[in-house]
Every structure is written in structure tokens, then in C-alpha cells.
Amino acid sequence: MTKLWAVIPAGGAGLRYGSETPKQFITVAGLTVLEHVLKAFLVLNVFESIVVPVPSEDINFHGLTGAKDESIVSIAGGLERADSVYAGLDWIRAQGAGDDDWVFVHDAARPLITGNELKVLLGAINTPDCPGVVLGMPASDTLKRIDQKRGHGGGSGIQIAETIDRTDLWHAMTPQVFQLSGLIEALDQMKASGLFVTDEAQAMEATGNMPWLVQGLRSNIKLTYPEDLKLIEAILSSRQEVST
User: Which one of 13, 33, 100, 159 is at 20 to 30 Å from 228 when CA atoms are compared?
Assistant: First the structure.
């Protein structure tokens, strides 16, 4: 029987966020960012294990109350996101997982993921011949490409090179869901070729396996910059008020 697993890479230092504490361990609305993520995954009660790759010298994860569930396992991650994801996949394979088992990969810094979005992804992978699926959102803003060679314009502005047609363009989010053997093979090929990928779907695409996109919620933002935290806190607080 096909099983479900999750990998939540939590090894990032959050350099763009600019905090001494990695952003996944920042407290917001009563829990750390990572604990909100784990809570959303645990509620479904469908995963064999939720694997959290953390830095080998990590001092944050094991003190989390929300990480005590027996289905949550921490392992040593890698230098890059892809390395941490691969470590998680390798651990899952070592547990005897089948090649066709599905793995949900989710950013540790996306605490606003909802149970309904996870259920949409579950529905997609239960569709015959699903090649893998990515949660996303159609681009709604006008997109500009900048010209790095021209440098900055006046003041602190950056010069625009062109406007890009946003028709058919989507923002890729997480979770991204793929079968175990296919994702390991794709990451192996990317590593062998020396190509850097920013998400799992890009690795799959490079091997000719084009995933599906399913629309998620625009609220499923990633904590990247300090100003994101206030928005995340407001949304989480409003959800807590509704639930009580």
C-alpha cells in the first residue's frame, strides 16, 4: 500500500531575514514558525513520519514542545535546501519506503499552510497518472525584469529592462509532492550535472517530468523579510480567534 511521508527542511540560516535566530524558530502567535507548520501536518494524521532536517549543531529544534510527537523525526540536514531534502528522502528510503510512496516537501518558513490545502494535494495524487503536484498561485501583479548591466537608476531605484506578460505565470509554493524514487533520481541528476535548483519541481522538470500545479491560498506566504512577520501574525491570530 502506498504510504505518505513529509520532509520539512529546517536547516536554513535565514540570512535575508537578518535575525540571529533562524526564522523558522521565531515565535509568532504563541508558537514558533516551525511549530505552526508541524501542527498543520499532524492534524491530518496521514503521514508515516514527518522528517525535519536541521543543522548538525542545532540548538533550537529539540526544545520545541510542538516537536514531541512520535511521528516527528529530526535528522542532520545539509548546506543547501536540496541537500537537506535529499537527506530526508534518504532517511525515508532507509525505513523501507516504497518507490511509489508520496513525499510532501514543505518550507519550514511557511506557517500559514492549511489543512484544506493539504487535502487538495492529497486529492491530486489520488488521481491516476499524477506526475507530482505543486501548490501555487497565479501571478497577479505586473512583472518587471531588471537589467543588472545597467545598474541602478536615480536614487535607490533599479532600472527596468522590460515588462513580462504574466499570462500563464504562477508563483510556486509548497508543499510540493512527488513519488520517492522519482524525486531522488531527479535530485541525483541535478547534483551530478552541477545545476542549482530552488525547488523540487525544478529538478523534476529538468528530467522531463512536468508536475501539475494546483491553486492554493494567497495567504500561504513564506517568511522571508521582517515585514512578513506582522502579516503572518495577523492571519494566525485571526484564525485562532475563529477557532475559539
Answer: 159
Residues 6+ apart with CB under 8 A from 241: none
- Residues near 138 by Cβ (< 8 Å), separated by ≥ 6? 169, 170, 171, 215
50: helix, coil or strand? strand
Helix (H/G/I), strand (E/B), else coil: 35: helix
Domains and CATH numbers, the chain: 4-134+170-243 (3.90.550.10)
Pairing of strands 160-164, 31-32: unpaired
157-182 pLDDT, tens digit each: 788 999 999 999 999 999 999 999 99
- Determine if the pTM surpasses 0.85: yes
Q: What is the pLDDT of residues 186-221, one digit of tens each?
A: 999 999 999 889 999 999 999 999 999 999 999 999
Kindly state the average pLDDT of the residues 45-62. 92
What is 107-163 written as a DSSP string? -TT-TT--HHHHHHHHHHHTSTT---EEEEEE--SPEEEE-GGG-B-STT-B-EEEE
One-letter amino acid of 31: L
